[in-house]
Amino acid sequence: MPEVHDSPNAWVAEHIRRFEATGGRPRPGVNDLLLTTRGRRTGQLRRTALVYARDGDRYVLAASNRGAEHHPAWYLNLLADPYVTVQVGTETFSAYARPATAGERPQLWRLMVSASSEYAAYQRQLTREIPVILLEPVSK
Asked: Whole-prediction pTM value?
């Protein structure tokens, strides 16, 4: 099993530890998952914790980077290699990640804002549009 590197951000790394310690429920009432991408420059596996919403059997993410003007590293990584590993609760599975199309984005954005109203506040302060990502589980 290849080594996985957790986010260098201390807040995110602590969130990952709480996720693991609580069986994937670090914040009751909030849907959190762990996303593992392959680093676009290093090839190393990188793990982060993110809020998600559901759209049928797909998982929806917002690449908000907590309101920063640049995209998060995990988003840039999945653009380079869209095959990712996802952990929801205690279940881990492979998925294909892709940005929502222009037609899909409005409805999926509303889902993300309903999952966490912070996303709307982040978008209001940014000049970049926050990408919305779909994770589609890959059948084995």
From this structure: 0.95
What's the CA dihedral at 87, 60, 128, 12 to 10 degrees? -20
| 95 close to 135: Cβ distance less than 8 angstroms | yes
Dihedral pair phi/psi, residue 21, rounded to 5°? -70, -25
- Residue 114 burial (10 A CB sphere; 0-12, 13-18, 19+): exposed
For the chain, which domains are there? 4-137 (2.30.110.10)
Flag residues of the chain having pLDDT under 50: none
Give the helix ranges, DSSP H, for the chain. Answer: 10-21, 73-80, 105-115, 118-125
Give the residue carrying structure tokens 């559901």.
54
